[in-house]
């Protein structure tokens, strides 16, 4: 049987950018003999409109069965007033939680043609290709106790940074596995100088690293890591970090490379029976209500998310390279959606023209 993909376009520009991914999937079937069983369903506001839920149980069950889920984006002003329990983002949170997607992969890659777009000097980012692995299901965003309590005559806000050895170990393993397919370097970031969880983090990562003798492991305090990311980002290959630091460091790394419309991501969980990891691929951007329905959205973030699926779910590294090279070529040829226009006098292409340009 062909590998299976569940497409959840979602809201706003989600369906627009996903239409371009569908073209690309069709292209791989026709031209490369690489076929997938593709099904499609609702998530977010679109699911709420039909089911009064941001993710129906049947959709959740399908997501658990397929080899990979591709998601567009969720949310929009029409749903801002909804009760928290049925907000569009809850659909996404449910997917991440029930699929137990503990390893969030955020590449920061600089396409030469867009190097001028970076907030940094061109020579600092040209050729940049790093990957941040963020632990996604534990840490201070989930740790107990939490809450706002009365203490004496004032209130105290409490969150708890908490990591078990096995949570650290599985995130670390995914970073080392990735490094084996890339530049064979892992830099682990925590605050072992001031945090107990950081001490344990460093110890467990060091232990897991012994299973990967080919991978060079280094450790860095996360605050220094933030500084190094903007000072000399090319020193890194894979950066491994926890949920909180990863949230911040990955947004920081994102801005090294320019537009939100270019950034893909993957969230991976434990291997399934067929050996493939549970996996959800999605662009970093949201539903962009300000440009939705106008054919202006840049589909590249979503297209590159599919390239990550080819690489990490379907073991098609060479085909992923092919797709990434096609994106690089289109950019080098000067094809630009509106978000990538730095100067006057260049006509932007539409979402669908960008998708067409990538496959031709
Ligand atoms: P956003 O990422 O949707 O948009 C931020 C800005 O970037 C906007 O000006 C938008 O036009 C632009 N932009 C984003 N993606 C683009 C693309 N592919 N091509 C061209 N321009 C692009 O973030 P915002 O405005 O904070 O949130 C809008 C909605 O999306 C909210 O309802 C929010 O909750 C939701 N959201 C959903 C996410 C998800 O589904 N994972 C992530 C972030 C926000
Ligand atoms: Mg963030």
Structure description:
This protein is of the alpha/beta class. The chain has two domains: 1-107 and 258-360, Isopropylmalate Dehydrogenase; 129-255, Isopropylmalate Dehydrogenase (3-Layer(aba) Sandwich). Helix content is 39%, strand content 20%. The protein contains twelve helices and twelve strands. The chain has helices at residues 14-32, 45-51, 57-65, 88-98, 122-125, 165-181, 196-209, 222-231, 243-254, 300-312, 317-332, 351-359; strands at 4-10, 37-40, 68-73, 103-109, 129-135, 147-151, 154-158, 185-190, 216-221, 238-241, 264-271, 277-283. The strands form two sheets. A ten-stranded mixed β-sheet has the order 2-1-3-12-11-4-5-10-8-9, with helices on both faces. A two-stranded antiparallel sheet has the order 6-7. Helix 11 (317-332) crosses helix 12 (351-359). The protein is globular. It binds 1,4-dihydronicotinamide adenine dinucleotide (NAI) and magnesium ion. Magnesium ion binds at residues 247, 251. The record marks 141, 191 as: Important for catalysis. Keywords: Amino-acid biosynthesis, Branched-chain amino acid biosynthesis, Cytoplasm, Leucine biosynthesis, Magnesium, Manganese, Metal-binding, NAD, Oxidoreductase. GO terms for molecular function: 3-isopropylmalate dehydrogenase activity.
């Amino acid at each position: 049987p062909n590998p299976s993909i569940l497409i959840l376009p979602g809201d706003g520009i989600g369906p627009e950018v996903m239409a371009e991914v569908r073209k690309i999937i069709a292209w791989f079937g026709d031209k490369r003999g690489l076929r997938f069983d593709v099904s499609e369903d609702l998530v977010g506001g679109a699911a709420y409109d039909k089911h009064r839920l941001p993710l129906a149980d049947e959709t959740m069950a399908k997501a658990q069965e397929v080899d990979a889920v591709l998601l567009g984006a969720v949310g929009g002003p029409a749903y801002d007033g909804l009760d928290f329990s049925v907000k569009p983002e809850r659909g996404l949170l449910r997917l991440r939680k029930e699929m137990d997607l503990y390893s969030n992969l955020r590449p920061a890659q600089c396409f030469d043609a867009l190097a001028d777009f970076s907030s940094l000097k061109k020579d600092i980012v040209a050729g940049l290709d790093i990957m941040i692995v963020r632990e996604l299901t534990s840490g201070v965003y989930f740790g107990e106790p939490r809450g706002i309590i009365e203490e004496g005559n004032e209130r105290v806000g409490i969150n708890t940074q908490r990591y078990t050895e096995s949570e650290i170990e599985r995130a670390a393993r995914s970073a080392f596995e990735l490094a084996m397919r890339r530049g064979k370097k892992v830099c682990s970031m925590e605050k072992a100088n001031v945090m107990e969880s950081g001490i344990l983090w460093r110890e467990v990562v060091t232990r897991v690293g012994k299973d990967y003798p080919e991978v060079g492991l280094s450790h860095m305090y996360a605050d220094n890591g933030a500084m190094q990311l903007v000072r000399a980002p090319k020193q890194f290959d894979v950066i491994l970090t926890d949920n909180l630091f990863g949230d911040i460091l990955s947004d920081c790394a994102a801005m090294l490379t320019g537009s939100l419309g270019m950034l893909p991501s993957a969230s991976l969980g434990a291997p399934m029976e067929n050996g493939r990891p549970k996996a959800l691929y999605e662009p970093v951007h949201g539903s962009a209500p300000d440009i939705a329905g106008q054919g202006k959205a840049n589909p590249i973030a979503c297209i590159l998310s599919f390239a990550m699926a080819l690489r990490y779910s379907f073991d098609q590294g060479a085909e992923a390279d092919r797709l990434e090279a096609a994106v690089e070529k289109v950019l080098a040829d000067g094809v630009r959606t509106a978000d990538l226009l730095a100067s006057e006098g260049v006509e932007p292409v539409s979402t669908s023209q960008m998708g067409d340009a990538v496959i031709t």
